[in-house]
Amino acid sequence: MHRYGGPEVVVVEEIARPVPAMGKVLVRVAAAAVNPVDWKIREGYMSSMLPIEFPYTLGCDVAGTVEEVGEGVTRFQPGDSVFGYPNLLRCGAFAEYVCLEEEELAKAPSSLRLEEAAALPVAVMTAYDGLFTYGNLRVGQRVLILGGAGGVGSAAVQLAKWKGAEVFATASAKNQQWLRDLGATPIDYGSQATADHAREVDLILDCVGVASGVAALPSLKFGGTYVTTSYALPEADQLAAHRAIAHLFGIQPSGERLEEIAQIVDQGVVRLVVERVFPLEEVAAALAASQAGRTRGKLLIQPSSN
Q1: What does the H/E/C string look like for the chain?
Q2: Greatest CA span in the chain, whole angstroms?
Q3: pLDDT beyond 70 at 165
Q4: Which residues contact 221 (CB under 8 A, 6 or more apart)?
Q5: How far is the CA of 78 from the CAs of 26, 67, 135, in angstroms?
Q6: Domain boundaries, given as residue ranges, for the chain
Q7: Average pLDDT in the 280-304 region?
Q8: What dotted CATH number matches 123-248?
Q9: For 156, what's the count of Cα atoms within 13 Å in the CB-facing half-sphere?
Q10: Looking at the predicted structure, is the pLDDT value of residue 306 above 60?
Q11: Cut 0.85: pTM above it
Q12: Nearest alpha-carbon partner for 87 in 251, 248, 261
C-alpha cells in the first residue's frame, strides 16, 4: 500500500529482500492468514491509533521457515519451522519474506502442515484472551459467542468446550451443523432471535460488532461480562441495564503465548478450517473476501514461489 483506500490501493511489487537486524528473524513465508484488521488498516479506519508509514505491507499472521537470523537471536536457527504475529506497525506477512522480532515467533505446531499454522496466531490468541484473560470463563459457565463460524469464533467455541463451559454460538444457516460438530448449541442469526435461544449466559464474546452485541445483551445474566474484539462498545446505558462488565481489547505479539498455542494445538484442542487459499498475486481479492464476511474459518495467502 502506498496510501489508504479500497482494494485498488493494494499492489504487488518487487522489493528488496529484508535483512534481519539485531534481534530479528528473517522468515521465508509458507503462508499468511487474512484477518479483518488487514482491510481495516487498508481503509484507514485505524489511522489514529496505528500511525503506519507508507509504503506498507499488510499481513499479521504468518508461518514459514527461518531463512536467516540477526545478531543476538538465540531461540531460532535457519531451517526452523515457525509461526508468528508481528507488531501491526510493521506487519509484512503478505510477501515472500518477512522479518519479525525474535519474541514475536514460536516453533510451529508439529501436528499441522506448516501452511495451516499461519491460521492460528491472531485467531487463537484473540479467542483465548477474550474467553479467559478478559472474560474469566470458568468450568460450568455459559458463554455466547457471536460469529461462531469465523476464525476467532470457531477457535473460541473449541477453547470454551475444552474448559468445560456450555457454549452457544451464532452463525448463518449453512454453518449450523458445523457449530454442532464443534460442540456448540447453534443459533441462526438470520431467522432466530439470539435472546430466545441463549439465556442467562455468564459471558458474551462478540466477534461481530456493536450492533450484534447490543441485540444479544438480553441473553446476558445481570452482572455478566461482555467482551468484544470490535472497535466500539455498546452505550453505557445499554450495558448498565444488564449491569454488564465490559471489555474491548486487542492482542499483543507474544512468542510465549504462541508456544502455549502450539502445545494445545498439538494436544488436539483446536483445529481451524481453511476455507480458501489465494496466491499472493490475488491479495486484493483475499482482502475483499474477508471484508465481505461469511467466511468459515480462515483465508490464507500463499506465495507461489514457496
Answers
A1: CCCCCCHHHCCCCCCCCCCCCCCEEEEEEEEEEECHHHHHHHHCCCCCCCCCCCCCCCCCCEEEEEEEECCCCCCCCCCCEEEECCCCCCCCCCCCEEEEEHHHEEECCCCCCHHHHCCCHHHHHHHHHHHHHHCCCCCCCEEEEECCCEHHHHHHHHHHHHCCCEEEEEECHHHHHHHHHHCCEEEECCCCCHHHHCCCEEEEEECCCHHHHHHHHHHEEEEEEEEECCCCCCCHHHHHCCCCEEEECCCCCCHHHHHHHHHHHHCCCCCCCEEEEEEHHHHHHHHHHHHHCCCCEEEEEECCCC
A2: 58
A3: yes
A4: 200, 201, 202
A5: 9, 5, 39
A6: 7-120+272-302, 123-248
A7: 90
A8: 3.40.50.720
A9: 35
A10: no
A11: yes
A12: 251
**Cell numbers describing residue 196:** 430466545
CATH 3.90.180.10 fits 7-120+272-302, yes or no: yes
Say what percent of the chain tops pLDDT 90: 86
> pLDDT, tens digit, for every residue of 179-231?
999 999 999 998 998 989 999 999 999 999 899 999 999 999 999 999 998 87
Amino acid present at 54: F
Q: List CB contacts of 192: < 8 A, sequence separation 6 or more.
A: none
Nearest alpha carbon to residue 26 among 102, 120, 138, 133? 102
Per the structure block, which three cell numbers stand in for 9?
490501493
Measured CA angle at 255 (ends 155, 35), to 5 deg: 45
